[in-house]
């Protein structure tokens, strides 16, 4: 585009559109390669798509068309939906999870604990780096180690939620730190339970969510042949809770969802599974609290 025309376009944006200096600079950047002499609908569509078809490109081209009076002659291509194509959540079978867990513990206790705590706590990625030793209710658990260990994590919007770590995982975690810190007295135990020490650290100290994602993805591919995302562990635990009879509203609170509809997405069922569940209920009318049809009840009484 010629320099004098760019200057005219800049004046139009400033005086007629009254845009900010930052927006004007962006519009000039995205419009500078437009070849006016080749302008037609097909060329315009290709130009916008080549530049990414995002809102700044569309705004720049639309302003150009307004300035030249061509806004009624040409149309912009359809805008993007704004939604990225989501990867489907892949179900992890119990057999696959057993293999995965064995592999992680073979890498080291910290690897195994990372997997277990993410799974049992149904943790989001952003919640993992926030875990400290004092995040656990150690003294409460030590009164009865057969119960679950409570863990408080900080999630979206800095909201706290409490999750449960199984007695088995809690014992592995506790024994690891007893040996590491040589805990022998009650005073040492108190100091341990109030420690600000971050639970999961890397070679450079602080571990972030990207590192956690890479660990889960990389190690799962080694043993299963496909990469698991940490979010799929969260999904698996939610479905396991439902299978055990936990009410959906309780699952919603445990996962930290604000809307019940979000939890329902986690608990998706196939049509085949739904039909099977309904068939099992209908095949046991007494257990399901279903009454026989009136005609059948009458015929049974008559026979008696």
Quick recap:
By secondary structure, the protein is mostly helical. It has helices at 3-16, 21-31, 41-50, 55-68, 94-107, 109-120, 138-142, 167-181, 186-193, 209-224, 230-243, 248-255, 260-266, 271-282, 294-303, and strands spanning 149-154, 160-165, 201-202, 205-206.
Q: What is the CATH T-level topology of the largest domain?
A: hpI Integrase, Chain A
Overall mean pLDDT stands at 83
Poorly predicted regions: 286-304
Assign the CATH class of the largest domain: Mainly Alpha
- Terminal CA distance reads 98 Å
| Percentage beta strand | 5-15%
Q: Helix amount, in percent? A: 55-70%
Instruction: Indicate how many domains the architecture comprises.
Output: 2
Describe the structure.
The chain is mostly helical. The chain folds into two domains: 3-68; 94-262, hpI Integrase, Chain A (Orthogonal Bundle). It contains 15 helices and four strands. The chain has helices spanning 3-16, 21-31, 41-50, 55-68, 94-107, 109-120, 138-142, 167-181, 186-193, 209-224, 230-243, 248-255, 260-266, 271-282, 294-303, and strands at residues 149-154, 160-165, 201-202, 205-206. A two-stranded antiparallel ribbon has the order 1-2. A two-stranded antiparallel sheet has the order 3-4. It is elongated. 20% of the residues are buried.
């Amino acid at each position: 585009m010629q320099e004098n025309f760019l200057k005219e376009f800049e004046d139009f944006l400033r005086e007629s559109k009254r845009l900010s200096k930052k927006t004007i600079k962006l519009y000039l950047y995205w419009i500078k390669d437009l070849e006016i002499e080749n302008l037609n609908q097909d060329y315009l569509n290709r130009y916008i798509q080549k530049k990414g078809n995002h809102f700044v490109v569309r705004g720049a081209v639309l302003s150009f068309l307004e300035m030249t009076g061509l806004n009624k002659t040409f149309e912009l291509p359809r805008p993007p939906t704004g939604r990225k194509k989501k990867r489907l959540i892949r179900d992890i079978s119990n057999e696959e999870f057993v293999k995965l867990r064995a592999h992680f513990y073979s890498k080291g206790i910290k690897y195994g604990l990372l997997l277990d705590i993410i799974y049992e706590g149904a943790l989001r990625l952003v919640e993992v780096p926030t875990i400290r030793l004092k995040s656990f209710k150690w003294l409460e658990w030590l009164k009865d180690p057969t119960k679950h260990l409570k863990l408080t994590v900080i999630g979206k919007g800095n909201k706290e939620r409490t999750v449960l770590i199984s007695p088995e995982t809690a014992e592995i975690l506790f024994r690891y730190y007893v040996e590491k810190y040589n805990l022998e007295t009650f005073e040492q135990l108190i100091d341990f339970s109030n420690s600000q020490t971050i639970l999961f650290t890397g070679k450079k100290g602080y571990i972030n969510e990207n590192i956690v994602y890479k660990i889960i993805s990389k190690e799962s591919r080694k043993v299963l042949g496909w990469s698991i995302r940490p979010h799929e562990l969260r999904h698996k635990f939610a479905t396991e809770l439902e299978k055990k009879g936990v009410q959906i509203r309780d699952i919603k609170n445990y996962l930290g969802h604000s809307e019940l509809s979000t939890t329902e997405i986690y608990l998706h069922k196939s049509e085949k599974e739904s039909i099977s569940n309904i068939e099992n209920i209908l095949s046991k009318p007494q257990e399901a609290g279903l009454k026989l049809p009136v005609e059948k009840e009458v015929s049974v009484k008559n026979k008696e």
